[in-house]
Amino acid sequence: xxxxxxxxxxxxxxxxxxxxxxxxxxxxxxxxxxxxxxxxxxxxxxxxxxxxxxxxxxxxxxxxxxxxxxxxxxxxxxxxxxxxxxxxxxxxxxxxxxxxxxxxxxxxxxxxxxxxxxx
Length: 119
What we know:
Blueprint: H1 2-21, H2 24-30, H3 67-70, H4 78-86, H5 88-91, H6 105-117
């Protein structure tokens, strides 16, 4: 009986865990406003984001980052990216990114999945 209850609980939680991962295809659509400054081939107004997941913040060669970002000590893991994309000015005060932030949790997860797919 205990195994049946545990199995049922696990079956109910799996879709929730899978949903938290994000959808890269949906993330590509949610990333559209970011394309005004960022791409995956060369620096635009903002730095190239190819391989950004796992990169130390403020280190992409050829881009002039703010001192705040260079000295932040951040590495762009999923948790830091989520906080950054939600509110860049709160995550790293004094950075020069002009973006108000993405407040929709699902879109945040999707954009991060998309960025991971471009690594």
